[in-house]
Amino acid sequence: NKWQNLKPYSIVDELRTQLKAMNRQFHFYVKQKTAMKNNLINLIDQTYPNANTYFNSPPRSDGSQKWVDFVYTYWHVDCVRKMSLNSFVKHYQNWCKQKKYIFNKSKAEEIYTKATELVPVFPKNEITKRIIRQAIAQLNSTSATVETIRILMNETASKLPEYPIVMQFKGIGPSLGPQLMAEIGDITRFTHKGALTAFAGVDP
């Protein structure tokens, strides 16, 4: 069977070593991403409170997120409420089209209504704009790095003989699987599948 046919050889050992190194880098950049996201939210609270809560779309394949794209364009609440409602709805519709997001008129109206009730701390000027956009640039760069490493880890892990076995585990996908493989290393040292699942802490 597959389990008995797994035989270690040098190229496989090299791949496992590289996968482990990538996994360390992955977790390092994930921590950086979290810190930069929190930094941006803290800044946005001074210019456009709660704008980060307007959308819950998952990150795209390049790491970009809708709320981050939104605050890049509408970095201050006055970017919204200085327009009329109709003007903002049209502006937001064009923004959605440009960014390839689904436009929802009621969402645009909701955003506008909330904007009229907010009190920013920072003024709407060039300095504030640069502070916000610099924080966004750092977050986007780190997010892109995280996704690049995630893809590279899966590509590397897929070359290892244990990949199809690990990927059969319940709840394991192309992101978690390679991370698990990086931590486990050579699974041929486990006498049977039950020992591996016990070590990994996942259901077979």
From TrEMBL:
<feature type="domain" description="Transposase IS116/IS110/IS902 C-terminal">
    <location>
        <begin position="165"/>
        <end position="204"/>
    </location>
</feature>
<dbReference type="GO" id="GO:0006313">
    <property type="term" value="P:DNA transposition"/>
</dbReference>
<dbReference type="GO" id="GO:0003677">
    <property type="term" value="F:DNA binding"/>
</dbReference>
<dbReference type="Pfam" id="PF02371">
    <property type="entry name" value="Transposase_20"/>
</dbReference>
<dbReference type="GO" id="GO:0004803">
    <property type="term" value="F:transposase activity"/>
</dbReference>
<dbReference type="InterPro" id="IPR047650">
    <property type="entry name" value="Transpos_IS110"/>
</dbReference>
<protein>
    <submittedName>
        <fullName>IS110 family transposase</fullName>
    </submittedName>
</protein>
<dbReference type="InterPro" id="IPR003346">
    <property type="entry name" value="Transposase_20"/>
</dbReference>
